[in-house]
Amino acid sequence: MLKLKKITTTNLNFLLKFTIGEYSNDLFRYGEATDRNRSVELATKEIMNLVPRGIDTPNQFIYRVKDDHQTVGWLWHQLVEQGKTGFLLYIFINQEFRRRGLGEKLLKLFEKEAADQGANELILYVFIDNVPAVKMYQKHGYFIVKEAGFYDATKSTRYKMTKKLISAS
Q1: What pTM was estimated for this model as a whole?
Q2: Which of 26, 48, 113, 114 is deepest in the core (most CB within 10 A)?
Q3: Is the CB of residue 76 less than 8 Å from the CB of residue 14?
Q4: Helices vs. strands in the chain: H and E counts, helices first
């Protein structure tokens, strides 16, 4: 059974380094950075701006995902627009645990937590060429609302996807 564990400062330092590496690779691969150095610079600035106060940064929800006492991945989201929108920043499943439906389970945990925190809409950005992720989000009710290219991109590289949450009241 998946469990979300709030991260410690040590976990955050590991995750930031790891995430910057992964994200900088994506920025370069998808054409949003002109070279590797620029991709690292962009990724570092963007990610570090999200957590200026570390684990004490308000409206950031960062979890180590455990299953049977082992870390299987990470979930990171935030609340924006006065807490009315849940913004999914990062779902990551370690390679050896992929293809088991854990990404979908994490997506559901994000949706439930955002709804419990008062969000009525969810948003995320996904690289257009990440077809498995795009399909998973669509399968769970997310709609593409816009294409965008960030940083040095000369074409659209990401989809902005949204999902409205239905109020229980």
Answers
A1: 0.91
A2: 114
A3: no
A4: 4, 7
